[in-house]
């Protein structure tokens, strides 16, 4: 036997590189199909489980193909697949785990440990140029994502310590508490209801302005801001019932003038339907409408955003929302802007927003149950700038809900600026004052 005959035989790299690439592509494509098509718009636990199952399937493919089609079997891949699948099953059988504080600390640590373990195993078992070119960079990205998740968890803990509630938490039943902040004095009490996805901080211009003339209350809906979450998404009547229970728990006496912006307008109408004797007047600030799906562009927008917004909670866990919103809300008062950014950065907030948007069609139907306010004062404020096609026609119908109504059209305002811009928010505040005066004096609103 010659010296050459005694040389070690190196494993062939002919097939393993393609097996790794195919397995990785299969995992990525399967995860996209699952989250965008199969479970599109689902809650965070389902979305995360779908991604875990997709990459578990990719790991199984790698383990099986490498054993059958190459001389470099990647047995570690089957172990990794088992752990990924187990995590996915846990998310499905225990949906509430995504709401626990423990998962925010444990998940990034486990992900980092998995990345380190896979790196060590690949170093021993995979002999191919694809290892430094693709696998190591991929594992580095996973490790960085885990570290970003830990950073986000730490930052959220620090945010909670650094920012203190200006209002209070009140028991609304079923072991839940909700946040309410009331200032000013006088009657009737104005209750401000913010639009889609926002907290009470989004009304930072309007609340103190109106509080100079009467009592004003702002609150956070369930699952956002300071308020406790609910186990399932709420429709419009459930949101109205929460508000009613909150005001009662805080001993804020009716009747109320309810002012709702955007989607908040639907909740105001639901409240007026369920509690007509406690509703003294209504202000609708570029309010969403029960017939919104009749607009030409809205059904398509809703379908796309419903799918996309379901991904936000998972992305927020890795600090993506914190980066995205770091310069947002600058038009609000400084303290309100900081508070909005702090809450919008969290997966908790994103879950609440996803649930609210998913329930919006039902909330629209329920808002349509309010066919008349009688002669109770109703102020409608419409923003024209960048309005959807057909929007003004829907807004023109709203004043017909009351025989005592007025409609202000603001050509320079956008949908968001009615609360977010100091100038346009002042117009919203004035519209609220008009209704307060009408309630106090029993005089009709001036027509515009």
Instruction: Please identify which CATH superfamily of the largest domain we are dealing with.
Output: Alpha/Beta hydrolase fold, catalytic domain
Topology as H/E string?
HHHHHEEEHEHEHEHHHHHHEHEHH
Strand order in the sheet with the most strands: 1-2-4-3-5-6-7-8
Overall geometry:
elongated
Number of helices: 17
Estimated helix fraction: 40-55%
The N- to C-terminal Cα distance equals 105 Å
- Based on CA atoms alone, the radius of gyration comes out at 27 Å
What is the highest CATH level, the class of the largest domain? Alpha Beta
Which stretches are poorly predicted, pLDDT < 50 over at least 5 residues?
1-5
Q: DSSP strand (E) fraction?
A: 5-15%
The total tally of domains equals: 2
Mean pLDDT: 94
Task: Note the main attributes of this structure.
2 domains; disordered N terminus; alpha/beta; 53% helix; single chain; 448 residues; elongated; Rossmann fold
């Amino acid at each position: 036997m010659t010296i050459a005959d005694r040389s070690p035989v190196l494993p062939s790299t002919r097939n393993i590189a393609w097996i790794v690439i195919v397995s990785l592509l299969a995992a990525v494509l399967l995860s996209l199909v699952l989250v965008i098509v199969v479970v599109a718009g689902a809650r965070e636990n389902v979305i995360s489980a779908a991604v875990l199952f997709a990459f578990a399937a990719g790991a199984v493919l790698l383990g099986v193909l490498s054993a059958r089609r190459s001389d470099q079997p990647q047995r570690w891949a089957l172990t990794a697949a088992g752990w990924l699948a187990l995590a996915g099953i846990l998310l499905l059988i225990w949906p509430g785990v995504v709401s626990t504080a423990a998962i925010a600390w444990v998940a990034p640590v486990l992900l980092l440990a998995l990345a380190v373990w896979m790196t060590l195993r690949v170093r021993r078992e995979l002999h191919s140029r694809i290892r430094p070119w693709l696998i190591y960079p991929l594992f580095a990205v996973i490790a960085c994502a885990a570290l970003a998740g830990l950073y986000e968890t730490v930052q959220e803990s620090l945010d909670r310590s650094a920012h203190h509630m200006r209002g209070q938490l009140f028991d609304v039943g079923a072991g839940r508490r909700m946040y309410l902040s009331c200032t000013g004095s006088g009657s009737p009490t104005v209750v401000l209801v913010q639009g889609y996805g926002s907290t009470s901080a989004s009304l930072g211009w309007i609340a103190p302005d109106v509080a100079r003339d009467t009592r004003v209350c702002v609150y956070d809906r369930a699952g956002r801001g300071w308020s406790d979450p609910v186990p399932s998404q709420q429709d419009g009547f459930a949101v109205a019932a929460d508000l009613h229970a909150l005001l009662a728990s805080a001993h804020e006496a009716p009747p109320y003038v309810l002012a709702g912006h955007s989607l908040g307008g639907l909740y105001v109408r639901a409240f007026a339907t369920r509690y007509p004797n406690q509703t003294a007047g209504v202000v609708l600030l570029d309010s969403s409408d029960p017939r919104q799906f009749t607009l030409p562009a809205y059904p398509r927008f809703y379908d796309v955003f419903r799918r996309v917004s379901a991904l936000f909670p998972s992305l927020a866990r890795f600090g993506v929302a914190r980066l995205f919103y770091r310069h947002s809300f600058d038009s609000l008062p400084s303290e309100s802007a900081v508070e909005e950014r702090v809450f919008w950065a969290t997966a908790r907030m994103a879950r609440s927003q996803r649930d609210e948007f998913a329930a919006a069609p039902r909330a629209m139907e329920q808002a349509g149950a309010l066919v008349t306010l009688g002669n109770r004062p109703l102020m409608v404020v419409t923003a024209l700038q960048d309005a959807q096609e057909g929007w003004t026609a829907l807004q023109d119908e709203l004043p017909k809900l009351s025989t005592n109504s007025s409609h202000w059209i603001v050509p320079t305002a956008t949908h968001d600026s009615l609360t977010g811009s100091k100038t346009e928010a002042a117009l919203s505040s004035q519209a609220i004052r008009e209704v307060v005066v009408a309630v106090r004096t029993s005089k009709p609103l001036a027509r515009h």
